[in-house]
Structures are given as C-alpha cells and as structure tokens.
C-alpha cells in the first residue's frame, strides 16, 4: 500500500494544478447539487419492530387526523384571577379559534370542553392538531404557530407554545467557528509557519465542503435526522484537519532530511498517508457498522458521518500533496529553509523524548496511576440512564422550555409526557368495548393520573385514549408505568392494543439501543484486535489497544454521566436541567471513539514497530516512537478537542452532550491512554510485545503500513526514509 500511495503522492505533486482544479470543480458541482436537490431533515426517531412504532403506523393508516404533529398552547392567568371569568373566557375562545385557523392545523380543542383546565382555574391547555408529522411541518406553519396568542397576552394572560411542532433543527453557527479558530492557532504553533497552517486548514475545509455538499445533495432522496449533518460536520472537520496535519508534518520532516520537495511529498503520502488510510478506514468501518444495530436513524447518522470521513481521507492523499507542491519550501519556517537545502537534519530532541524516558523509567507507577485513575472516573457509569430528550432539557427561556415548565407548574409533570393507547379491531362494536376495557385497566394501574374518554375514527374500528402519567417523561417511574400498562394489555379481548406517544417512543428507543450496545461493543473491540494484528503483526499490541479503548470508553461515560445526569459542574456548560443521556449517545460514542483511538494508536506505535524491526531494542523503539509522534499527536488531539468542544456551546442538548463526550473521550484516549499507558505497557512487555506465532505470521497478509516495501523499492538507506509517526 505504501508504494501505491507513494506513486499517487508523486503524481498529485507533479500535476498539482490539475488536481486542484478537479477538486474545486467537484466542490462546485456538489454545491450546485446540494442547492438543487437538498431536502428537509427529520426530527422524528422511527424504531421498526417496537410497539410504539406499530401504534403510530396504525394511526397513520386508520386514524390519519390524529397521526400528525401536536402542539400545546399553555395559557396562565395572573395569581388571583381565573380563566372562567367572562372576559378571560371570551379571550380564550378567541385564542382557540385563532389556533384552529392556522395553516396546516386540523383542529384546536377548547380546554373547557375537554376539561383541560387546572383545579385552581388559572391554567388551561389548548391542544392543536396538525395534519403533517413534525418533520413535515413547514417553517411558515411553525412560525405562525409560535406567534399565536399575541392578542391574549395583551389582556394580561401568559401564553406559551410547546409540543412536538416546536422541535427545530440545530443551527450551525459561531460556536463551531470558535473550534476552527482554536484549531488554526494549534496548527500555527505546531508548524511555526502560516503557510503550513493555512494550507492544512484549506485542505481540510475543501474536503469538508465536498463531503457536506454531497450529503445535502442526497438528502432529497434519503431522509436525514436533524443531528446527522451536525455529526458529519463535527467528524469531517476534525479528522480532515488531523489527516492533513499528519501528512504535512511528515513532508516537513522529509524536507529537513534533505529530500527535494517532490520526493518529500511522495514519501509523506507513502508513509504517513498509509497510516491515514488505515486510520480513516477504521473510523469508516466503525461508523458504517452502526447499520448492524438495525435502527434506521442511527444507520443514516453513521453512514453520513463515515462519508465525510472517507472524503477527508481522499483529500488528504490527493489534494494535500498538490498543495504541498504549490507551497514548496515555504512550508518550513524561514530559519529552517536553509538547513533543509543544506541537508541538515534537526536533532531529534523535545518533550516527546523526555516524556517517553520518564514514563518508561517509572512504567509501573504510570501504568497503575493511569488504570486506577480511569477506573475511578468510570464509577458513575453504572448509574447511566438513557432517554430521548424532552422540552424539559431545552435551553431556559426558549418557548418549548417555558411551555414545559408552565404545564408542570399548573398541572403536574405527567401532562408533559402524555401517552397514547391505540385500540383497533375489524369491528366497531369490538373496538368500542375493548377501548372501555382498556380505559378501566389503565386507570387501575399505579402511576396513572387520568385517562381521557376514547376517541373513535370515522368507521369506529380504531380508538385513541390519552393517558396522563403522574410523573415526567424521563422519570424512571414513567418507564415502569409503560411496562405495567403493556403487561395488562394482554387482558384485553380480541382487539389489538398498543401504547405510543413521544414518551413511549423514547422508552422503546432506549431499550432497543441498550440491548444493541453490548453486541456493538463486542463487534468494535473484535474488529480493533483483528485490524491491529494485521497492521502491527503482534498478538499483545492489539489486545493492549483494545483494553485501553475500553478504559477510554468507561471513563468518558463516567464523566458524561456525572455532568449531564448528576449535574456536577453542569452550569459551567449551560446545562440547567440534568437528566438522562440521549439514547443513542453511548453506541455512537463507541463507534466514533474507536476510530479516533485507532488513529493515535497507529501514528504512535507504527514508529515503535519500525524502529524495533530495524534493530533498536524494544525500550529504545518505544522512546523513539513517542519522541517522534508526541508533538503531532498532541496537536491532532488538541484540534479534535477544540472542534468537538465548539459544539458544547450549542443550545441543543443532544449536540451539546455529543460534543462534550467526544472532546473528553479524545483527551483521555490521546493523553492518558495512548501517550502514557501505552508506552508504559510497551516498555513493561519489552520484546514480548512484538511476539507473533509463526503460523499466524504466514497467514496474515503484509499491508506494509510502515513503508518497508517502499524502502526496498526506493533502495535508500533506512534512515533516509521517514516512517511511522
């Protein structure tokens, strides 16, 4: 592979103008396609095979007027004033009429007609039924809904708009730009050259633009969840900068070794580019592997993000050497250009060598401190609870959050997590009887506050019952209630019974994801062992890498639970209401962190292996690998942390938790696991680290990630050919 990439890098350098024009043309074409074919993203989470999804599908077929998105308008009178007064009653009825006439609305229900008024008479709920589901409601319809009630507010009433229809797509803005700015500063400090930093950033941004444009171009035919583009942006930007950084760093070292720019770029792609291809492949495989879980929205998120990562790899091994050709020796700081021309090699000294020396000397101490420290950080993990976020976790002051708090204040938290029981059969008489039986059974279930009278569809074959729990949507007691109601449903006669609603959907999603998590973790760990065994031709190195990855995951989950669920230091991150983690965060985090952890593993350990194979002792090879790779891995980790950290500043609770967990995970894996525990273990294992049974050595193919075959092909002395970072 190294020889093939060497030739690709040389060709890209020689034909740099053509390569640049082709990438810019592709970027323009994809941008045009995105503008022409871009479709809306979806905010709903479908879960085939679950009871809640089955109920929703039945409603869509048999009770379409009740299958669309719902809105809840909360009206509150000042203290000492009741909505039943003639003046406020007339205002309320006018508000109901106004809401019912909104575009896209099927009906708005008078709260006095259905008893949706609080016991003290100060609060009322107006249910608004839209024809379309939440992700199909247009921006114009949503804007009109959010402006309703201005005349009622002028009379002194408080009006807040909430419900499914208020769900909006997360916006990408200045917070992400902050991460990019930090990444640019890290690049400038690392390279000491504006040309090198700017070119690396430009390369990454072109790749990101192409990947995101391609994703949006496909959104017209493939339904994307609202978080899929954000995840793709987050990963595409982070790995795009990092992969370009690795190749640029190797190219600069080659220039300092006295190579001509064209040869330096070709060898950089052949050596560091091999590591980039492998590292990128692990990220793509881990993300695409989310498809095995069998959850559509998670599959789309994984494929979308893996697509941007694949584009980042292609840009790094083709466009990057072309840009290096334009830069020439200006990629080096001025003080080093003359030394490069004179074939002067910079002395291999720096923090990485000193740190490696300390860690290998006190390896047992560092190993125990690292393992015990990460184990301590993982203590909160067993308490992790999963759920889909509700309006109670929305930013304070937002319309959905204000409506949520007002409903809890006037009616109790259960009114924010209403359930919907769907009873259906082929006979109107059977359905009506079964619906009454279901209502009786549900009312007798512990934790139920109220059950509304059944609503029947036009032919009477499907009934819908609104169920009000006593507890909030993400409360553990509500989850128990859902299971209890479903257990009692078996007592209903010939009719089909299913429980749904946003709360039930969230519970079903969480249960299915929790069940899939161990299988996916086993898949990822097994994959890491096999891939690293192929790359490093060792048994113990892959096992060590997998165990280190498990330490990273455990500590990351523990910290995330402590902050977002327990509320430790939550106010510093703008989390004013701690609660369960979003259902798909753990499985998504495992897939992403696996790929990124393997990045650092490859960039550090490949140099250790190469030096060991070419005569260094295992101890010296470990020091060399750390010494040559620490600076660039540190820069890469800081860039990823800054990019992911920029998303922590977003208001959306899902994106905030994803950005935080990824930033923490990268920091732990890069600085604690890969740069501390790994050299300590490698030093402790000594020569045994590179043991591989002969029969397995004959079976495993040689992928030549360190460029040994390239060295033989070029016929140069080993010290003249840079290898593993």
Count of separate DSSP helical elements = 25
Distance between the termini: 17 Å
Low-confidence stretches: 341-348, 716-725
Query: How does the overall form come out from the CA principal axes?
Result: elongated
Q: Spell out the CATH superfamily of the largest domain.
A: Multidrug efflux transporter AcrB transmembrane domain
Could you tell me the CATH topology label of the largest domain: Multidrug efflux transporter AcrB transmembrane fold
Structure summary, number of beta strands: 11
CATH architectural arrangement of the largest domain: Up-down Bundle
What fraction, in percent, of the residue positions are helical?
Answer: 55-70%
The overall number of domains is 4
The profile of the biggest β sheet is: 5 strands, antiparallel
Q: What Rg is obtained from the alpha carbons, in whole angstroms?
A: 30 Å
């Amino acid at each position: 592979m190294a020889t093939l990439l060497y030739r690709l890098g040389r060709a890209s350098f020689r034909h740099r103008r053509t390569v640049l024009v082709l990438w810019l043309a592709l970027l323009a074409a994809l941008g045009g396609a995105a503008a022409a074919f871009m479709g809306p993203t979806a905010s709903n989470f479908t879960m085939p095979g679950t009871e809640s999804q089955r109920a929703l599908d039945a409603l869509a077929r048999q009770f379409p007027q009740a299958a669309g998105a719902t809105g809840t308008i909360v009206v509150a009178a000042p203290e000492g004033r009741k909505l039943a007064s003639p003046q406020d009653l007339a205002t309320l009825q006018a508000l109901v009429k106004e809401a019912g006439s909104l575009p896209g609305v099927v009906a708005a229900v008078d709260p006095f007609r259905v008893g949706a008024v609080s016991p003290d008479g100060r609060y009322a709920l107006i249910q608004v039924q839209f024809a379309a589901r939440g992700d199909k409601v247009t921006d114009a319809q949503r804007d009109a809904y959010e402006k309703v009630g201005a005349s009622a507010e002028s009379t002194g009433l408080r009006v807040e708009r909430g419900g499914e229809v208020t769900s909006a797509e997360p916006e990408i803005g200045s917070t992400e730009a902050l991460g990019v700015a930090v990444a640019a500063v890290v690049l400038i400090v690392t390279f000491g050259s504006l040309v090198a930093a700017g070119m690396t950033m430009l390369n990454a941004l072109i790749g990101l633009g192409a990947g995101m444009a391609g994703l949006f171009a496909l959104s017209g035919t493939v339904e994307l969840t609202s978080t899929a583009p954000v995840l793709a942006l987050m990963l595409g930007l982070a790995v795009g900068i990092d992969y370009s950084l690795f190749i640029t760093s190797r190219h600069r070292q080659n220039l300092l070794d006295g190579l001509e720019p064209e040869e330096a770029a070709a060898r950089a792609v052949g050596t560091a580019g091999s590591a980039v291809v492998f590292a990128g492949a692990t990220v793509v495989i881990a993300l695409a592997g989310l498809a095995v879980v069998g959850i559509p929205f998670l599959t789309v998120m994984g494929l979308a993000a893996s697509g941007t990562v694949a584009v980042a790899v292609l840009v790094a091994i083709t466009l990057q050497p072309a840009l290096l050709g334009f830069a020439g020796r200006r990629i080096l700081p001025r003080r080093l250009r003359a030394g490069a021309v004179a074939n002067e090699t910079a002395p291999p000294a720096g923090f990485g060598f000193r740190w490696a020396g300390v860690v290998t000397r006190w390896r047992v101490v560092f190993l125990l401190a690292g393992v015990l420290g990460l184990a301590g950080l993982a203590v909160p993990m067993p308490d992790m609870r999963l759920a889909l976020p509700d309006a109670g976790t929305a930013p304070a002051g937002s319309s959905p959050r204000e409506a949520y708090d007002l409903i809890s204040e006037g009616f109790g938290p259960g009114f924010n997590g209403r359930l919907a029981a769907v009873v259906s059969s082929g006979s109107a008489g059977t359905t009506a009887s079964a619906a009454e039986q279901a209502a009786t059974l549900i009312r007798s279930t512990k934790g139920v506050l109220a059950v509304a009278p059944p609503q029947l569809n036009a032919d009477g074959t499907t009934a819908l019952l609104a169920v009000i729990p006593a507890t909030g949507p993400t409360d553990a007691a509500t989850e128990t209630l859902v299971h209890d109601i479903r257990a009692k449903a078996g007592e209903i006669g010939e009719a089909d019974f299913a429980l749904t609603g946003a709360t039930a959907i969230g519970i079903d999603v969480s249960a299915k994801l929790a069940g899939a998590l161990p299988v996916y973790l086993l898949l990822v760990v097994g994959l890491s062992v096999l891939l690293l065994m192929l790359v490093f031709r060792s048994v113990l190195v892959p096992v060590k890498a997998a165990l280190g990855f498990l330490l990273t995951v455990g500590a990351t989950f523990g910290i995330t639970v402590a902050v977002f669920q327990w509320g430790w230091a939550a106010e510093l991150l703008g989390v004013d209401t701690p609660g369960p983690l979003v259902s798909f965060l753990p499985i998504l985090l495992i897939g992403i962190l696996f790929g990124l952890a393997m990045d650092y593993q490859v960039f550090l350990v490949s140099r250790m292996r190469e030096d060991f194979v070419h005569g260094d002792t295992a101890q010296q090879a470990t020091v060399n690998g750390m010494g040559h790779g620490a600076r660039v891995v540190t820069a890469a980790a800081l860039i990823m942390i800054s990019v992911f950290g920029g998303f922590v500043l977003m208001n959306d609770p899902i994106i905030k938790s994803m950005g935080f967990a990824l930033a923490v995970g990268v920091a732990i894996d890069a600085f604690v696991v890969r740069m501390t525990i790994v050299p300590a273990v490698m030093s402790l294992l000594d020569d045994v680290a590179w043991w591989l049974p002969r029969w397995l050595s004959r079976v495993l193919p040689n992928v030549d990630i360190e460029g040994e075959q390239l060295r033989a092909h070029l016929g140069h002395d080993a010290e003249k050919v840079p290898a593993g970072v």
